Amino acid sequence: MTRKFNFCAGPAALPTAVLERARAEMLDYQGRGLSVMEMSHRSDEFVAIAEKAEADLRELLEIPSNYRVLFMQGGASTQFAGVPLNLLGAGGSANYLYTGIWGKKAIKEAEHLAVGSHVAASSESNGLIAVPRQNAIQLSGDVGYLHYTANETIGGLEFDYIPEVAADGVPLVCDMSSSILSGPLDVSRFGVIYAGAQKNIGPAGLTLVIVREDLLDRARKDCPTMLNWKTAAEANSMFNTPPTYAWYLSGLVFEWLKDEVGGLAAMNAINDRKAQALYAAIDGSDFYSNPIVTENRSRMNVPFVLADDRLDKTFLAESEAAGLLNLAGHRSVGGMRASLYNAVPEAAVTALVDFMGDFARRHG
Ligand code: PMP
């Protein structure tokens, strides 16, 4: 078996140790004589798996006790609608910071739901290469929440600070799909955090929502049951059949983060080293470039372009032949992108940097 280095933006690499454990437990989960996929979600075995996953996640992120953790479906994209539907029952305007393609989709969805939406600050004028600073944020008078995207996965633009919502009681809502668990986090600064699982959490099919309890009473009357956070919280995320296997695998990832990596501070240091090594290689050459201002360069998604885009196809073919998979940029922007999520080892970055140096020497 050869596992290649996988730089996919999502569904992304999973830790090999997690896949090995899942393989070992696949046919016969801990002597029960069946796989996790074949268990009732209401069985004692599965409820124990589900509770352990939540407890480990709470420990990793130090989630305060007045927050609920919901294991939902539909991807982060479904929460683009879930956020206004759950938070604007008493009216108010949806406020957004616009820093890239995913934030734009969230804004569009709020507009689709006929919610008054307001862009409180935007990176459009700088060409999406820097996030707006705190003093540029101008909330609307009737603000119901402020939403932002912590890390824009396509542009490779990441917030280096947590925005403040000066207005009392107004929740800060964050799409953390591509940066959650990349390092320690002060959850208490947020009203709601949500993330699709398929990057730093586990396989696709699961969506995490972390919501402060006092916000569970703000849903619009027309909020569909399956999108209603309070319904999910009251049913311990089992109002209907949850994505059980994805929940189980995510639990294995949380265990791996705790027991093998040593927690989020240790993960943070590794992620710093990986990103620094790749950006240094890009900055140290005339052949590669990345336009993002230093303080907002994403640690998880590193887009870069070659000086001559006629070499793009060759770069992708040669890198794949060298065992470096999925380096193509998002189809909407082209170029290259290396995603360096938690499960991508430092050895992968070393191999990529070596390959890039060699490619530039041969083709530069
Ligand atoms: N937000 C961000 C920041 C993302 O990176 C993605 C997926 N790449 C999404 C939202 C959409 O996630 P999903 O596919 O789970 O709906």
From TrEMBL:
<protein>
    <recommendedName>
        <fullName>Phosphoserine aminotransferase</fullName>
        <ecNumber>2.6.1.52</ecNumber>
    </recommendedName>
</protein>
<dbReference type="InterPro" id="IPR015421">
    <property type="entry name" value="PyrdxlP-dep_Trfase_major"/>
</dbReference>
<comment type="pathway">
    <text>Amino-acid biosynthesis; L-serine biosynthesis; L-serine from 3-phospho-D-glycerate: step 2/3.</text>
</comment>
<comment type="similarity">
    <text>Belongs to the class-V pyridoxal-phosphate-dependent aminotransferase family. SerC subfamily.</text>
</comment>
<feature type="binding site">
    <location>
        <position position="175"/>
    </location>
    <ligand>
        <name>pyridoxal 5'-phosphate</name>
    </ligand>
</feature>
<feature type="binding site">
    <location>
        <position position="102"/>
    </location>
    <ligand>
        <name>pyridoxal 5'-phosphate</name>
    </ligand>
</feature>
<dbReference type="InterPro" id="IPR000192">
    <property type="entry name" value="Aminotrans_V_dom"/>
</dbReference>
<dbReference type="InterPro" id="IPR015422">
    <property type="entry name" value="PyrdxlP-dep_Trfase_small"/>
</dbReference>
<dbReference type="Pfam" id="PF00266">
    <property type="entry name" value="Aminotran_5"/>
</dbReference>
<comment type="function">
    <text>Catalyzes the reversible conversion of 3-phosphohydroxypyruvate to phosphoserine and of 3-hydroxy-2-oxo-4-phosphonooxybutanoate to phosphohydroxythreonine.</text>
</comment>
<feature type="binding site">
    <location>
        <begin position="76"/>
        <end position="77"/>
    </location>
    <ligand>
        <name>pyridoxal 5'-phosphate</name>
    </ligand>
</feature>
<keyword id="KW-0664">Pyridoxine biosynthesis</keyword>
<feature type="binding site">
    <location>
        <position position="42"/>
    </location>
    <ligand>
        <name>L-glutamate</name>
    </ligand>
</feature>
<keyword id="KW-0032">Aminotransferase</keyword>
<feature type="binding site">
    <location>
        <position position="198"/>
    </location>
    <ligand>
        <name>pyridoxal 5'-phosphate</name>
    </ligand>
</feature>
<keyword id="KW-0663">Pyridoxal phosphate</keyword>
<feature type="binding site">
    <location>
        <begin position="240"/>
        <end position="241"/>
    </location>
    <ligand>
        <name>pyridoxal 5'-phosphate</name>
    </ligand>
</feature>
<comment type="subunit">
    <text>Homodimer.</text>
</comment>
<comment type="pathway">
    <text>Cofactor biosynthesis; pyridoxine 5'-phosphate biosynthesis; pyridoxine 5'-phosphate from D-erythrose 4-phosphate: step 3/5.</text>
</comment>
<dbReference type="GO" id="GO:0004648">
    <property type="term" value="F:O-phospho-L-serine:2-oxoglutarate aminotransferase activity"/>
</dbReference>
<dbReference type="InterPro" id="IPR020578">
    <property type="entry name" value="Aminotrans_V_PyrdxlP_BS"/>
</dbReference>
<keyword id="KW-0963">Cytoplasm</keyword>
<feature type="binding site">
    <location>
        <position position="153"/>
    </location>
    <ligand>
        <name>pyridoxal 5'-phosphate</name>
    </ligand>
</feature>
<keyword id="KW-0808">Transferase</keyword>
<feature type="modified residue" description="N6-(pyridoxal phosphate)lysine">
    <location>
        <position position="199"/>
    </location>
</feature>
<keyword id="KW-0028">Amino-acid biosynthesis</keyword>
<feature type="domain" description="Aminotransferase class V">
    <location>
        <begin position="5"/>
        <end position="352"/>
    </location>
</feature>
<dbReference type="InterPro" id="IPR015424">
    <property type="entry name" value="PyrdxlP-dep_Trfase"/>
</dbReference>
<dbReference type="InterPro" id="IPR022278">
    <property type="entry name" value="Pser_aminoTfrase"/>
</dbReference>
<keyword id="KW-0718">Serine biosynthesis</keyword>
